[in-house]
Amino acid sequence: MSSEFIPQEGSCSCSSNTYTINNKPIGRFICHCTICQEFTGQAYNDVTILLKSDVSKLNLIRTKFRRWKLPPNISRGLCTRCNKPSIETAVGGNLILIPTTNLPNVAALPEPSMHLFYNRRVQDMDDDLPKCNGFVQSQAMTVKALAQGMYKRITRAC
Ligand SMILES: [Zn+2]
Q1: 8-156: what CATH class?
Q2: 119 CA distance to ligand 1 centroid (A)?
């Protein structure tokens, strides 16, 4: 079937940490919050979201997880070797957040659907995507987009 997702092996920039995504991501966002800036060392974090069950073959021996205060319940993993983002988890590990640059075939991923914490940006974005400001709005829009992503997947399976 042509709509089937071809698995991709992602990794941190030095390939010490690897994992395989086996299903179409349920969302993709560009987050401009200051923690994402610190975590990535970039102006923003382009992050692709999957369910825990979509990700297999996790080899994270060189990933060190850390929690920042906000946004809550996100555990962010940095590679202990290259010191670049490896993988993130949220909602008790049930959601997997992968920095999109860690995935080899970006063309097969969904397009980013919006900007989060845009009020914290250090770089203006020249696109037509919705731009959410602050925690409450960013959180609400994220939940809505992820629900839509999951719904799309369920209806596709019918
Ligand atoms: Zn690394």
Answers
A1: alpha beta
A2: 30
